[in-house]
């Protein structure tokens, strides 16, 4: 994932004008500007989501398994992209574990703020790609909701 200029976490990507580009060609053009060395195909497609609001956007989500070497290459390319330091503050690895305190790792990561459908896309990918066992994923999501409820309860009693 990426830390964006506005402090929100999101996935690399951008807008594609379907009049000039196929979805994958446009996505690879946008990714090439930010990551340089990754190409996605129709086989990497996972899902699409419609975001409601003043600007309706269809967010198409792609995922691809990488070797550690490929990931390192992408991380290095991202630091040298034209958007680094302006639109994108850096790459962020998602922790795929939960610490013994049941908050460290993935639960703390999920407590961050995400842009648009990025959090839903992340949870969907972790589940559908079997990257985190479903029960552990549910526990991580539940752990992020407990502190908020406790803070609201305390504020209500004050």
TrEMBL record:
One of its GO terms (cellular component) is nucleus. It is found in: Nucleus. InterPro entries: NUDIX_hydrolase-like_dom_sf (IPR015797), NudT16 (IPR054754). One of its GO terms (molecular function) is snoRNA binding. Keywords: Nucleus, RNA-binding. Coiled coil: none annotated. It comes from the Eukaryota. This is TIRR protein. The lineage of its organism: Eukaryota, Metazoa, Chordata, Craniata, Vertebrata. The gene is Nudt16l1.
């Amino acid at each position: 994932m990426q830390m964006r200029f506005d402090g929100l976490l999101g996935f690399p990507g951008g807008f594609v004008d379907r009049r000039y580009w196929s979805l994958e060609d446009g996505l690879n053009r946008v990714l090439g500007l930010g990551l340089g060395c990754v190409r996605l195909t129709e086989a990497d497609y996972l899902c699409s989501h419609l975001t409601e609001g003043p600007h309706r956007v269809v967010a198409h989500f792609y995922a691809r398994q990488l070797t550690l070497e490929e990931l390192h290459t992408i991380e290095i390319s991202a630091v040298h992209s034209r958007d680094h330091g302006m639109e994108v503050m850096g790459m962020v690895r998602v922790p795929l574990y939960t610490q013994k305190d049941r908050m460290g790792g993935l639960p703390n990561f999920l407590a961050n703020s995400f842009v648009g459908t990025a959090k839903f896309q992340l949870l969907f990918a972790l589940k559908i790609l079997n990257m985190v066992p479903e029960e552990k994923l549910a526990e991580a999501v539940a752990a992020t909701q407990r502190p908020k409820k406790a803070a609201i309860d305390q504020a209500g009693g004050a």
